[in-house]
């Protein structure tokens, strides 16, 4: 039987992308509610920066996972 972590592992890139999308949604929700004024072009740089940061986090996570797997494989032999 497979462990739960192997089926649904931690994905830091997806976490960062989701948090960025939630932040953009919260900004515009506050704008709609009249709490503050958000310029219309705010979503583009926030989303782009969030996706870039998510890509970096995903790449780093993949590299770390791959190196750990190699070290485990070499220590098992």
UniProtKB/TrEMBL annotation:
Supply the alphabetized keyword list.
Membrane, Transmembrane, Transmembrane helix
- Indicate the transmembrane segments per the record: 39-64
Q: What is this protein called?
A: Integral membrane protein
Q: Which organism is it from?
A: Streptomyces sanyensis
